[in-house]
Each structure stands twice: as structure tokens, then as C-alpha cells.
Amino acid sequence: MNQSLEDTIIAVSTPPGPGGIGIVRLSGPEALPIARKIFALKETDPAACPRAMCFGYLHDPESGEVLDAGYLCYFPAPNSYTREEVVELNLHGSPVLLAEAVRLGIKAGARLAHPGEFTLRAYLNGRIDIIQAEAINDLIQACSLDQARVSFKQMEGSLSCKIASIREKVVELLSLVETSLEFAQEEPEVAPERIKEALAELISDLERLVTSYQQGRAMLEGLSVAVLGKTNVGKSTLFNALLEEERAIVTPYPGTTRDFIRENILLDGVLIKLVDMAGFGQAQHPVEEEGMVRGQRLAEKADGLLLVLDASRKETREDFQLLEKFSQKKMVLVFNKVDLEPKINIEKILAVCPGRPWVEVSALTGKNLEELKKLMLSTFSPPAEKQEEIILHQRQKTLIESMKQDLERALRLLEEGHSEELVAEAIREVLPDIGQLTGEISSQEILEEIFNRFCIGK
Q1: Which superfamily is assigned to 219-380 in CATH?
Q2: Assessment of whether the complete model's pTM goes beyond 0.85
Q3: What architecture is the 9-129 domain classified under in CATH?
Q4: Which of 46-60, 160-174, 253-267 has the weakest average pLDDT?
């Protein structure tokens, strides 16, 4: 990310494609002068009434041709998104028109913004920290309302405040240990039990954040659920029924699905990445065999499985082999085709995997599909305890785990009777991790990894 904060940047900030309104954003020291070169105001001077919508016309300064009518809004520094001079041109949402506005802005002295550069400038100028920057992109990309709520809170600084509170406690704890060192030759001012209690409390706080990551990952990325079973048990019919559309090809012939199909469904705010795959059994074709191999890999990596069994046929050795093969995975047993005469021995199946959730359905008629959806949620995404904060990113989880491990080491050293110097050193190791977490300590590689995930205009 080689750029200068002295540059004035420009980009389209609204999504690609036609729309009623499109916004072109400029940020930097020359934002207003450049905007005034390509946008002629009808009356009001935006410098005199910042944050007001001023009507005018987009035009080509060289030819004088008027291209569009719209509004200019000026946000003076430091009271703007980037803490720089910011101008937003609100135009009609034609992609061609917006691209021309950007071209004219570049010709007038701006340069095209890099992905996430507006938010990067907000971070570099101290308006937000890295956690808030990540939350901004998470909010833009939110795939469920629950995730949007979490991301908005974090964008507003809730997780940053939590980390700041932990940092304050760590510094206070460090001062307690160092006080104990200072008065080592006198009557101890600080009881070791007080330090142990403070360490245990901090470790508990960090543990709650670490364990929240599973829920956070499900919110951010969704849960992968593989639909598997023998050939011709109705997996693709069930897949289509859950999607409520004819996505997978369905025929009465075994081995129709030879590769996998992945589609998303939203169940009560939880994103489920549903995967239909080739049925397990005796392959009739090399392509079908490869589909089974791929299916097994997908099933092993999935967060959960729907094991589909044909209730209109007697249980087979292959059914029990699948139960054994995936016995360590979260699984819902789906007895399909209950609209036909039942022949499977459900009790015999359940005897080899006691406690497994199960349901009888007809993917063809839709019977009990709602019950299956509820069972999927309770099995693969059980309601978690209400968390003050939820970690959404592996980067955050890794750093918090490192902080927790350092404090656990400090507690262990204290309990084993080691010197306060070693305890203090272990506690002190937490501070650099906090700095990396919030962005007080940053590297070019980390910044690029985070901000390159953004769109150009944010």
C-alpha cells in the first residue's frame, strides 16, 4: 500500500451496477477545490454550510458540457469519516456517469483510491482502531441481521472498549506485582492471593472472548452442512426442498449427482452453506467415483452432516458404514421418503448411534421440513450464552489466545513460587498483543491483509 496522505483520493462509494443514487467520494487536502472544478453549484457555497446538500451540476471543465444534476456535501476536517477534508457528490446511479465523474476528478488532480483507503485513512488519522476498521467491513458484508448487529456495535467501539478495559486491568496488575518487588525487603504491601485473583479474573474474561469465536465464525462465514447418504436416497430432492428451488438435477436413476453443489440458505438469521454431493455406494463410472472421493473430503471438513436414509427400504450395510465413518461429526439423521410404505428399522439404526437427533421427512411432499430446519439449528448452531462481545476474526482470536496463555503462565509461575520478576515478565508480554489487536502496534503486511478486503470506495 504505497500511498501518501497528502494525496486527494476519489472513488465511487456505492455498489456496482445501476441505482437511483450513486455517490462519488473525495478525501484529502484538495477535496473541495477539486470537487468545485467538476461540480458547479447553483447557489450555495458548501464551505459556508458544511454537511448540507448543495444543489448543482456535474460538468466537464474543458468542454463545459453538463452531464448530470445532483448534490454536493462537504465535510470539513476533522469532523469527517477520514478526519480529512471530504466531499461527496450525490448523482444519478448510472455506472457510466459515475465512472466519468471519477475520471474528471482524477483529471482535476485527485487519484483513484486503493481498496479500503478511506477507512485506512480514518485509522491512520486516529478516528478508529483496527478492530473498528474490521467491523466496518464486516457490517458492509453482513450476511445476516445478527451479524450486522454485532458488527455495528463493534464499529461503534464496544469490543475496543472491552480490550481497553482488559489493558487497564493488566497495567494495574503489573503495578501490583512491581509494588511487591519494590517492597520485597519490607512488609509485603500486596498479598499474593490478590494477584492470583486478578490473574484468574483476567484469564476468565479472555476465555469468554476466545470461546465466542465459534459463534462469531458461524455469523461471519456461515456453517457448512453436507447432505450425504447412499445413492438414490433422495439427497438432491431434500437439497432442493430446503432451498425451495430446483437447484440439483433429480432423476429416479442412482448416481445422478457426480460432483457437489453448494448453495446458501438462511435459517433464523444463521447462514447455512448447504452442500449436495454424490451418493456413496458402488460407483458405475470413474467420474462418479471421483465425486464420492470429493464428497468424503467435504463431509470430513463440514461443520455438520445431514445423513439421509431411505425409509422406504430396509437398512443396509452401507448405512451402518456411513454412521461409523462419520461418528465423530455433528449429525442429524434424516429418514426420507416417509410418504411411501416404511420398511427401515429406525430403532435398529438409532441403537448404533444413541442420542443422535433424527427426524422423519418427505422431501417430495415437504412433510416435516420445518421440523428438520429447527433440528439443524439446534444441532449445528445451538443458542449460545448471551455474550457481551463476540470475536469474528481468526486474527483477533489468535492474539487473545496468546494473551490468555501469557497470563496463565504468570499464574502458574506464581503458584509454583517463582520470583515476582518472572511473573511480571509474563504479564508484560500481554501488552504487545493488545497493541497488535487494536492497531497501536501494526505492520504493513497486516494492514494490507485487512484493508485489501474492502471495496474501493470505503
Answers
A1: P-loop containing nucleotide triphosphate hydrolases (3.40.50.300)
A2: no
A3: 2-Layer Sandwich (3.30)
A4: 253-267
